[in-house]
Amino acid sequence: MFTGIIEETGEVESFARTESAWRLRVSARAVLGGLAEGESIAVNGCCLTAVAFDAGTISFDVLEETRRLTNLQAIVAGAPVNLERSLRADSRLGGHFVTGHIDGRGTIEVLEARGADHFLRVRGPAGSGRLVIQKGSIAVDGISLTVAEVDGDAFAAWIIPHTLAVTNLRVRAAGDLVNLEFDMLGKYVEKILQSQGSPR
């Protein structure tokens, strides 16, 4: 479980196929503090297991399904990735509950400065708009954002300068793919309504 409050952006050092899985190696600083082998770290919002680490890097095994269904499939050496350690029970919850299980990919349609802030508009997968509400929460590449507008399967959010500075949004542009995780409560409500035969 995560909060969507990014601790740092790491840099991809390598991402290659091995005999058993894809191996992702990322340079990091903050998330290495107190890290133990086998712990979970969200990488661009994907919950991955730290299988090895040293003083400056962490390695993860990535399933083929995870690579195929997320924007990790297009990741290259040198790319910045959002990193967050899993939530501790005694920590403040500054964002919202994020599981690290990606629901799908979205495409950035607009990311531009508007005054001191930035405006982000993302188009999600077909039919995903039913899971997004105005003033609700959504995780974009693991970043907890508040939805400002909803238009069909597209949504918009405002990005403050701090978020832009400490996440990989600073290098994103229109056309880029981002990982999306919709609010868990909304998904449970939809599941309950479907089981009761209620229309969406």
Domains, number: 2
Provide the spatial order of strands within the biggest beta sheet: 10-9-13-7-8-12-11
Number of discrete helical segments: 3
CATH names the topology of the largest domain as Elongation Factor Tu (Ef-tu), domain 3
Mean pLDDT: 94
The SSE order reads: EEEEEHEEEEEEEHEH
- Give the end-to-end Cα distance, rounded to a whole number of Å: 28 Å
Summarize the structure in words.
With 200 residues, the protein is mostly beta strands. It folds into two domains: 8-85, Elongation Factor Tu (Ef-tu), domain 3, CATH 2.40.30.20; 104-195, Elongation Factor Tu (Ef-tu), domain 3 (Beta Barrel). Helices cover 12% and strands 40% of the residues. The protein is built from three helices and 13 strands; from the N terminus they run βββββαβββββββαβα. It has helices at residues 64-69, 161-166, 184-195; strands spanning 8-17, 22-27, 40-43, 46-53, 57-62, 80-85, 104-114, 117-123, 137-140, 143-146, 149-151, 154-159, 177-182. A hairpin with a 2-residue loop joins strand 9 (137-140) and strand 10 (143-146).
Give a quick precis of the structure.
By secondary structure, the protein is mainly beta.
Main traits of this protein?
single chain, 200 residues, mainly beta, Elongation Factor Tu (Ef-tu), domain 3, 7-stranded antiparallel beta sheet, 6-stranded antiparallel beta barrel, 40% strand, globular
Helices, strands, pairings?
Blueprint: E1 8-17, E2 22-27, E3 40-43, E4 46-53, E5 57-62, H1 64-69, E6 80-85, E7 104-114, E8 117-123, E9 137-140, E10 143-146, E11 149-151, E12 154-159, H2 161-166, E13 177-182, H3 184-195
Antiparallel strand pairs: 1-2, 1-6, 2-5, 3-4, 3-6, 4-5, 7-8, 7-13, 8-12, 9-10, 9-13, 11-12
